[in-house]
Amino acid sequence: MGEAGRSAGAGLLAGAVALAVLTALPWSDRAGTGWEVWAGFGVAAGACLLLFHTCGPRGRAGQGRAGVRRWAGALALLAAAVAAVTFPADSLEAFAPAEGLVVPSRAAVRLWVCVAATALGALFLALAGAPAGPRPPRRSPAGPLAGALPVLVAGALVGPALFPAERHTVAAGAPPAGDAVAWEWEPPGRVAVREVLSGPYGPLVLLGDGAVALDGASGGTVWTYRRPHPGTGGGGVGSWGDAMEVWSGGGRVHLAERSEEPAAVLDAVTGARLAGRFPGREAVRAAAEERLEEGRRIWRRAVEEPPGCHRGPGREVAGVLVGLVGCADGFDDLGVLVVDGVRARFSLVGVDPDRGRELWRREWEGSRPSFTPVAAVQGDPLVVLEAGDGEPPVGLDPATGEEVLPFPGEEPSRPPDALLQADTAGLVAVFETGDGGLLVRRSAPDGGIVSRWRPEGAAFDGAVLAAAAVTPDAVFLPVYEGGGREPGAPVRVLRLADGGAVDDLGVHPAVDVLAGPGWAVAVLGDGYGPTGLRSLAG
């Protein structure tokens, strides 16, 4: 290689030593304390000694070149071996092992760059031949600079290139339509999964450092937004997975440092960052609690409480405050009917929260009434009223109190044991049969039965009703497989298709099931929460 190779090698060693010193400074993010860190700094120390012998008085005079070459060859082999063994795969998501946890560290990557540069620089010195003449040629600074500059530039680019401040891609539009295919998804770098929700095109995954929206049919990424790992900034690796609050609501995804104003607010459909100021999660919770209490006060002021009557707290349903009034001698101080067989006069009352005026009232006599706001699945939300005494429930319009969703009177005519859907688009009710089995019935808004299912071998107490998913043409129902009932225990997912067909979609360690038009996924997990997704297609 001659003198040019020798100069470039010295420059590489000088750059490696300088980068190692910068990495070890107190204000640099830490590289860790493992043996690989000490090995890296040991190689850097060897580079410093070799550089001293190469550029010292004897080296400049051309003396001891043979010994320097031998030591350079040994250091090149040592540094290459250390570089191969200590490659920081767990610091880079792209190279992390499948079962490993990514703990990004700019310092660890920079230290590896030092080791690699030392191996290359020592190799250049080992291969450099003896000077052609009796006196060593005059050295130009171009050679050392050509070696040192790439090392320093590489070290400077580690942060912005490998650990960007934000990893953000925005949806280019709706995913192309196509048949659902089998796919699985795991969080990148084993980052913590906080929650998995139904998004506009598929699952919306809230991570410990951001969010990812997936196409439910193909498993492809629609948009992603991820903040930098705490270990790449001032937070330190100890706060990994716990430094961000991530939540979704109102068509938006919020990301914030703990209990602080959101650092970013995204549109849940496109992933685009929204401008403006938004309250933090604690402020949102406080406002929701205040709104709840204010709604109860408004409802109590608007609804009279005659002697012998009791007003239950009003609940907001689709912008209307709905509450129950009961009048009888059998109420205790808490408004609980404690005398069996006493028939009371009940009224379900809707109140306009803005005007504080009564909108509608529905009255009847009974003994054990209840009303339940059921989350809407496809249509507008309703209030489901069970008047008691075995009367079939009815779905009421919260704005007018009118009956808009009749419950079928066919067998079983008794009230359902659970509701998976009750809105203006229809009803999905679950019943426990006399032998402990399971009966699921779907009806149209006019009360006509669309489908009825009784899955063979499925017990009512084994159905995970809280994890069921309803789409316009099917019901996805997980049922525990075996005796386990803890989160993540194996469940068999059944697809109840319109027309009465029951499809077995296999056994999965699922904690939830999500579905939408053209897609369905099992949310895999354990007692600590979700860990991944698996398509239920095929």
What is the structure about, briefly put?
By secondary structure, the chain is an alpha+beta fold. The protein has helices at 2-24, 35-55, 57-60, 65-85, 106-127, 142-162, 281-302; strands at 167-169, 184-185, 193-198, 203-207, 210-214, 221-226, 244-249, 252-257, 264-267, 309-311, 315-317, 320-327, 344-352, 357-366, 370-374, 382-386, 394-396, 403-406, 418-423, 426-432, 438-443, 449-453, 469-471, 474-480, 491-497, 502-508, 510-516, 519-526, 529-535.
Number of DSSP E strands: 29
Number of helices: 7
Mean pLDDT: 81
Shape: elongated
What separation lies between the terminal Cα atoms? 61 Å
Strand order of the largest sheet: 1-6-5-4-3
Based on CA atoms alone, the radius of gyration comes out at 34 Å
Low-confidence stretches: 230-242, 333-339
Content-based structural category: alpha+beta
Range of strand content:
25-35%
Summarize the main sheet: 5 strands, antiparallel
Fraction in helix: 10-25%
Describe this structure in words.
- The chain is of the alpha+beta class.
- The protein has helices at 2-24, 35-55, 57-60, 65-85, 106-127, 142-162, 281-302, and strands spanning 167-169, 184-185, 193-198, 203-207, 210-214, 221-226, 244-249, 252-257, 264-267, 309-311, 315-317, 320-327, 344-352, 357-366, 370-374, 382-386, 394-396, 403-406, 418-423, 426-432, 438-443, 449-453, 469-471, 474-480, 491-497, 502-508, 510-516, 519-526, 529-535.
- The strands form seven sheets. A five-stranded antiparallel sheet has the order 1-6-5-4-3, with no helix packed on it. Strands 10, 11, 12, 13 and 14 form a five-stranded antiparallel sheet that branches. A four-stranded antiparallel sheet has the order 2-29-28-27, with no helix packed on it.
- Helix 1 runs antiparallel to helix 5, helix 2 (35-55) packs antiparallel against helix 4 (65-85) and helix 2 packs parallel to helix 5 (106-127).
- The longest helix has 23 residues, at 2-24.
